[in-house]
Design a protein that fits this description.
Chain lengths: 252, 252, 252, 252
């Protein structure tokens, strides 16, 4: 039987501002990357989201980002390594303590947005993240882009790395994600999304924008919760998984 | 031999903005209330301040405040109890995790500014703070105003409360602090400050603005680090303590 | 023929966070209160919203609030009068200049949220707002709660005050709005909303929560754009207005 | 007689956080670049600083920056051109309206920090700034780095550009400033600073870090107010100017 994890960014609402559709998404996922209050999220939404994750028995990961609410953490920022390290340690500590106070546990860390993209290609950022996370809790797993430099660096340092692939993002021939600033970077057709996910799970490959076939091994599939069609995507995947005998299960 | 703790708010600088004179003050104090990033402070200053506290063997407390950098946490904010509780839990968790990653430990929590003042008189705020702190770590002590409602509520709930008094703030006849918005609320004359501190330690009382004598039992004396004369105050206290045989020592 | 203005808070989205449904609402309203970036809104949403107002020939008002994005300007803040005045002047100047650069004009100022509520009852806040607005442009009208102290103070100072009433908020016997923290403070039934609006326009009165009849003269009716039913409310009012021969028209 | 303008960044304090030493610096300068609340400054400090400029008859420029208080506007941010334009228009409008309400006028705009550095080399940023400023007020002058791409672009577009040089920053052979992240980027010796300024004014050149002589024509000399020695630098320049018959005078 083939098992796969489905993860989604959660808890990114801020104050009166709602983003994503967490309540509708929780029943479909097995891992939730919960925002830590820097790129999105705030203390009360963090608590609510952790409680929802507990209720739905969904695994929890810390989802730290750049300190940039206005840019939702999607703008590259030039933080010196010691500031970046401190910012990540602060965020992971905050959610770790809050989760433990509610009887939950943080299992992994997945960087958000521009920090995620930098970690995939920038050795200094990758190393800084690894150090920050280790200093807070050496038992935490790290989630990042399958096939990235980040995966290599974690392997070199004996960190349990969870490789993920994207359901609704177009890949480029070099294995990176097509930038959101370009057209057709986000897949919207349900069949296209479903086929990409099945290709990743069953054939361990993905077809890039220019039709190149890229080998890809992923333990988790990322769904974007701020995509208005997120629930439809999850429904479509559920049906496809049932037909193919694929089971959703958290990674360990 | 009489022993007393000296505490000071530390780590309140933010980004490029420096406030206080932490490096000059650390040698004189026995407890440091370190900002948690909401009313002041940021992750990199938090790390630096914890390292300084370790170096000077100064006890560390979490110093959470309202989420109001522009008002430095000194403006009363109407947060619903569940939001206030979440905000305090987030801040205490953040500094607790960061401190532990550096080999340090948080021993107590002292609320900041308007939150401190509200805790002294508002039952709901007091109870919310107690719950928040207990949920993060029931072993944490709480520091607050000597003789306040906060002290009573902590006593009722079997929380170890550390009563503090102020070196450089004028008291009112009811035992509260004279508001910063009024004239002569902050004591500046070194002799006046020294005499107030000695009166508190040796006679367990303080003389209010209108000359009323107020009984007061304090385990710690608070010095304001953003007072430009802070180091001179600490020097004056050091001399006075030596003459009187008073020893500086952290509370437990 | 009876004419009435319909106003709505607009442009309150921030960065990646969308709030309200501005595009769907613009065709139905005659005045738009555009956020100025403190309680909500940001420069790019401000520009977009001004352009939409121009396109739909909808009158523009500045909508300044407390500097509290996390609380959406709905939490009372104790700003000293000179800071409040400076904050309002800054916000009104910003939107005025941006509007003029796009060929639009700010006609009025309506304070937001907790600032709106304070202005209705607090003489100091009312006066501070009047001074701030006058210093930026003495030709600006002020919009506020019909029958409030703010209306009296503007009358005393010969400021053109536009009295507004609320379509979807329950009134209390003293003419104030029932607090959002209480149940049944927001009207949701379309017939109830429509009847309240017609009662205000045609009978110059409103029926309070306890059935008291309150005399009320309003030149404008406020619709809440963050109410998910806002468009349905506006549709229902459109039909009712047609039946009753009421015309929507901007105040002058 | 040789005349030169001396400019300094002013009004960058935020809430309880003081930066720079504006009161001591105003008597020595002829142009003040006043922060607009994004990288530093806030409404109340903006008002106070404008009043000080009026009192000292010092010319006022808007000093917009990236929306990054934590980084003091010194971190490069990837804002799309329309967002950057909106952010600059918002800031310039805000200070323009506030200044006019106080009987003062904004004469020029000087971008701050990372935005200043980008404008010097990036055509898109330069053009975006020019458009933003023109849309708010085509009569505003622009201040930027002498000899930069920004100067060329302003010349091409018939914008009055005020070329400035730096008193206390080391130049590189290509005419750019040596990065603050490198050693010896900031000049501290008073004689070295004075000689660099005299070289710029009298010989229309500057000697770079590697001893290259760079031709440089500047109408204004920038002093950094957050340099603790700023007043001493200004005193030294005053003496040197008196000896050399150089007069301080605002550009027009």
């Amino acid at each position: 039987m083939i098992a796969i994890d489905i993860n989604c960014d959660m808890g990114e609402s801020f104050g009166n501002y709602q983003i994503g559709n967490d309540q509708a998404i929780f029943p479909y996922i097995t891992s939730s990357n919960i925002a830590c209050g820097f790129h999105g999220g705030d203390p009360i939404h963090m608590e609510r989201t952790i409680k929802q994750a507990l209720l739905h028995q969904v695994q929890i990961g810390a989802h730290p980002g750049f300190p940039d609410l206005a840019g939702f953490g999607r703008r590259k920022m030039d933080l010196p390594p010691n500031e970046l390290k401190a910012a990540v340690k602060y965020q992971v500590s905050a959610i770790k303590g809050v989760a433990e106070s509610l009887g939950a546990f943080i299992r992994y860390v997945k960087p958000h947005g521009a920090l995620y993209n930098l970690a995939a290609v920038d050795e200094s950022v990758s190393n800084t993240l690894v150090q920050a996370i280790r200093e807070i809790d050496p038992g935490l797993m790290i989630m990042g882009l399958a096939g990235s430099l980040f995966q290599e660096i974690c392997a070199d340092q004996d960190i349990r790395f969870v490789a993920e692939a994207f359901a609704d993002r177009q890949y480029q021939a070099d294995g990176s994600l097509r930038s959101r600033s370009l057209p057709e970077s986000v897949l919207v057709d349900l069949d296209v999304v479903t086929n990409q996910v099945l290709e990743i799970i069953l054939q361990k490959q993905v077809t890039a924008y220019d039709s190149t076939i890229i080998p890809l091994e992923a333990e988790s599939i990322c769904i974007h919760g701020d995509n208005p069609a997120a629930v439809k995507v999850l429904e479509a995947l559920k049906s496809a998984f049932e037909k193919q005998g694929i089971v959703k299960r958290s990674f360990r």
